[in-house]
Design goal:
By secondary structure, the chain is α+β, with helices and mostly antiparallel strands. Helix content is about 35%, strand content about 25%.
Amino acid sequence: MSTGADPVAASGFGVEEFDAGLERVVQDTGASVGLVYLLMPGERVLDLAVVSGAPVRLTAPWARVPLDAPELMAEAVRERRLLWLGTQEEVALRYPRTGLLLPYDFMLAAAPMAHGRMVWGALVLLWPARDPPELGPRERAAMNAFCAGAGLFLQQAADRGRPLLPGAQPRGLSRWSSRIPGRAETLAAVEFAEGLPMGCWALDLDGRITFANTTAAGLTGAGADALLGAQPWKVLPWLYDPRFEDCYRAAVITRRPISFTALRPPDQWLSFHLYPHACGISIQITPAATARRPAAAPWQPSPLESGRVIGVYPLMQLATTLTKAVGVEEVVAQVTGQLMPAIGVQALALMAVEEGRLHVIGHRGYTADLANRFAAIPLASSSPAAHVLAAGVPSFFATFADLKSAYPPAVLQDGMAAWAFLPLITSGRAFGSLVLAYDQPHPFPPAERAVLTALAGLIAQGLDRAGLYDVKHQLARSLQDALLPPALPTIPGMQVAARYLPTTRGIDVGGDFYDLIRCDATNAAAAIGDVEGHNVNAAALMGQVRTAVHAHATTGAPPGDVLARTNRLMADIGASLFVSCLYVHLDLTHHRAHLATAGHPPPLLRHPDGHTEVLDLPPGLLLGIDPTAHYPTTEIPLPPGAVLALYTDGLVETLGTNIDDTIADLANQLTHAQDQTMDALADTLIHHTTHTALRNDDIALLLIQATT
């Protein structure tokens, strides 16, 4: 934390006193962890400034919290009142991300640090779970007193031009006993630890070993010199398992003893017993009581001892994937594909609300016939999937007897033995329900319930984002379709085909366009173009350019004049985007074509004998650069049987390739696609491009064949 100057003397409260105040409120309330967030005037982000009672790295996911984020500290600031949650299930239900990252038993409270009308930050406290899970008057009074004093201090510091600012990293406060032992007492403690028959480690809050006795060295095969100052899972390869660190975090957060066993190669099983306290963790190491462990399980934490059933890491991978999912179908695919191995269920069904009913939109482990039996469940029904959505609270049934007791009409149809029904709700909007089924009775300990509840919240958020994507995607495509010609005109003496493909990802509408125009009985025109960018502005300009080209074409203007007039129109309307365009006038009587280009990829001409030529047209500036630009016209023969291919750069531009090479490859494809109709030829050219590369641009293609 930085002040930019000395502490503010007028407040009688400096940085040291600020830190001491945080330590006091943590001690007075019995909290295990304390966090202080600062909010600078004019900003909309809470910056984590001070951490007490936990490793700073453990708080990294909450280092910067936007004020509009779905997090308790942000909500406390927005509402300017003290808020608290009494159980991990409440945390998981209201704040899925926090519940998934910290699936442990704890209570959580947050209060704003304010003075007058200004809010300067927030205090967050975390306690081990207790019964009853209540925040008492003593805790409330201590939090309010600290927040009032801190708010005054921060206000006075800002008024004097010396605001208290968060540092580049949060500061971690180390807690030590107020009684510092003397040298003799320290030596006696070391001698005592050395005389114990079990191994002893002392870890600080960051998980670094600060003491190791000789017995621990013998059991683990690593002496104090190698271990002191290091985290054990980084020094001992056989402890390098994320679940070991997860047990450490659980002990820090819950302040409850936790145990696990690990295999020291080749065959020595060791028991580790973690005893957390305010300054870190004391660890006792002994040979495991069980003589032999299964060789296939090199690391076996006990769920009963650790309170954990589901590892958080596979779920975090799924959560990360969900944030990147595009569209509802992709969310469904990720949930049904990744969730089962991550949580060990044998079947699942993802149900969504549609027209007042729950419909199965994805399932795994169930037959299609069984899934169809549960299709279209009315939201007002008494089924568990509908009930949890209406109540907003998950239900867990360890056995069928439990399910039958809660829902007497229930009939065992899926052959499973335990179920979890989880509502998918976010921002007050109900999306559906998630049904998980196990083939054996399943107890659902509190930690697992919290993880599953948090996971359901993340799935709901993923569906929310995906649904918005789908809506925007549909609107964008509808706009694109409205701006393109609904159908190409039938013109005697010509066979034509056109294709338009949007980019492979993204929701924005593109600016690619094409057009075929009947001028009179013996003349026609064709145009193809591409407005830079992928947004509504590009689409709007595309519509204006296409309309202008169409209007000038019907007057019989030469190709160069059509482009020049359209170019001047862009200057008149103040267009800020550039446009490439290729315009072709088709003389059907004399079998001639006149072409002009404005920075567009060269057209291809397949001659009646089958060979294909890349037409080298005189270059012209992109439309929108210079309103006085000139566009020369080129005349070519277009005899019966010849095919003219017009396309946008999305068909030939691929990351890491030379565009001249891809144009030559397209010409080669055109040469070898003899005796195909125009529709079949269009499909051949499009398929070749989309099959060989992931596209990042739209594609427009217009094929014209002279027939008579």
